Amino acid sequence: AQKVTQAQTEISVVEKEDVTLDCVYETRDTTYYLFWYKQPPSGELVFLIRRNSFDEQNEISGRYSWNFQKSTSSFNFTITASQVVDSAVYFCALRHNQFYFGTGTSLTVIP
Amino acid sequence: DGGITQSPKYLFRKEGQNVTLSCEQNLNHDAMYWYRQDPGQGLRLIYYSQIVNDFQKGDIAEGYSVSREKKESFPLTVTSAQKNPTAFYLCASSTTSISVRQFFGPGTRLTVL
User: Pick from B88, B99, B105: which is nearest to A52 by CB?
Assistant: First the structure.
């Protein structure tokens, strides 16, 4: 069975702090893809990153970075020097045939 | 520009009325999906379709119906049988390749009075 767990329901940080959002997944498949989406207050999901199961390289994009570790089935997302505009709900998702979403982590960045 | 459109953004209906939410995509995607999101909750799959004239129930299909007569369109009807229809509804599309992400529409916020 496929499953994505985002154990952190809500996180609050003060602006400029670093924050890591956890994502743990379960799958028996060897080929799969992992995704992160951001949902700002407007509601539309914004795609952030895709990672395939064969590529364990970490990725950095500006203040965002992602750490993929197959050994622990985790695909964690770090925001460095957080800003108020980072306040949103963040979803981690897994795709083999179908899509499986975590329940999301609501991040609030306090000015 | 390619993308997904959902209309309207906000929808109000009286209890007991059926209502249809529109979803159109011009991305040439075979697969389309409907999700429901309640405040503070994650996404729950209502229905999905991987090809025209075929669709499957998701986790919470009761009280909803869909059709897929055209590749570009996947309307969702919220029927009077849905006990608690007030929610945010998101439509998405993708190809059938597992490497492709889902593309999401802007959502429709349905309020039943």
Answer: B99
- Distance (Å, whole) CA A111 – CA A34: 31
Among A17, A16, A18, CA closest to A77: A18
Question: Do A5 and A56 form a contact (C-beta atoms < 8 A)?
Answer: no
The closest CB to that of A96, out of B94, B98, B106, belongs to B98
pLDDT digits (tens, 9 = 90+) for B65-108: 999 999 999 999 999 888 899 999 999 999 988 888 999 999 99
Cα radius of gyration (chain B) = 13
Query: If you search the block for the tokens 């389309």, which residue do you land on?
Result: B32
The residue with tokens 């000015």 is A111
Q: Give the pLDDT confidence of B93-104 residue by residue, as tens digits.
A: 999 888 889 999
